């Protein structure tokens, strides 16, 4: 019954961009970046080859798409390698994903630092707030997670994926990746 309830919420709730650098509210579709390339390399459709993330033919949008795909696939080290190649290391999306990858790698204190920097750069970064709240849930600090949920709602994120995923994490006691 609970699964049906959660599925109903997911279907009925309007969602916004689920992950930084993405206009999608669904998990990334695996591409050759995760299917063919190794060591944090990124598939380039034009050359039909895997490129170093620093290659000049790639832009930060390509890199962020690769970060999202690699992180979702659990290839945290590869995602971090691509993050290192991002042009603007102070962009709140980059900082958010640094927090996400640190948290998924078990470096929770470091993750908190990255999320704080992302929120300093952009207090309205709802995804950073959601991921920070999910870190608090994982640490058993529901009160701090609820504070982030409140911030998300106050900043216009009601019914967004950021709000929904944090609310479900608080309810279930465990976080969601996306």
UniProtKB/TrEMBL annotation:
Superkingdom of origin: Bacteria
Secretion signal span: 1-19
InterPro entries according to UniProt: TPR-like_helical_dom_sf, TPR_rpt
PROSITE patterns per UniProt: TPR
Protein name, entry field: Uncharacterized protein
TPR repeat placement: 92-125
Keywords (A to Z) from UniProt: Signal, TPR repeat
Gene3D superfamilies: Tetratricopeptide repeat domain
SUPFAM superfamilies in UniProt: TPR-like
